[in-house]
Amino acid sequence: MTRVFAITAAYTAFVGVFDWLTAANYMYLAAVPAHHSLLSVLGRWPWYILSAAGVALVLLLILDAPFRSGRRAAGLSAASASRLRPRSSRSPRPSEPIWHFPGPP
Fold first, then answer.
1. Which of 1, 4, 2, 53 has the alpha carbon at shortest distance from 27?
2. What is the distance between the alpha carbons of residues 69 and 73, in angstroms, rounded to a whole number?
3. Packing angle, helices 2-22 and 47-74, rounded to 10
4. Which of 71, 72, 27, 77 has the alpha carbon at shortest distance from 48?
5. 71-101 pLDDT per residue, tens
6. What CA–CA distance (Å, rounded) separates 10 from 16?
7. Sign of the alpha-carbon torsion through 57, 59, 63, 67
8. In 10 A of CB 55, how many CB atoms?
9. What angle do CA 84, 86, 92 make, to 5 degrees?
10. Helix locations, 23-104, DSSP H
């Protein structure tokens, strides 16, 4: 989960530099949108960016909660669980195809 947050923060920093170089407002990093939104409630620039990061962190924790309990039960950390590959439940490929489609009449 921390890796996802770090990647998101790095991407936001990249977009912030791009906004600064091009005088754009992608991700509303330069100014609050003209219409009312959650960013309007979070404060003035630049504080709403930090508040939005806090909201994002809380949402990531909520979304990760069901999976965290499963990893805890399995004795895995988030980093080691992401490296696991699911095992294939299928047996080795049969010599004949499973589906048989009749040829042309």
1. 53
2. 6
3. 160
4. 27
5. 777 776 666 655 655 555 555 555 655 665 6
6. 10
7. positive
8. 14
9. 135
10. 38-41, 47-74, 78-83
Tokens of 81: 């669980």
For every one of its 105 residues, what pLDDT tens digit does the chain have, with 9 covering 90 and above? 788 889 999 999 999 999 999 999 999 999 988 898 888 899 888 899 999 999 999 999 999 888 888 777 777 666 665 565 555 555 555 565 566 566 666
Question: How many of the other CB atoms lie within 10 Å of CB of 5?
Answer: 14
* Burial grade of 29 (CB within 10 A; 0-12, 13-18, 19 or more): buried
Instruction: Round to whole Å and give the CA distance between 6 and 86.
Output: 25
Residue 74: per-residue pLDDT = 78
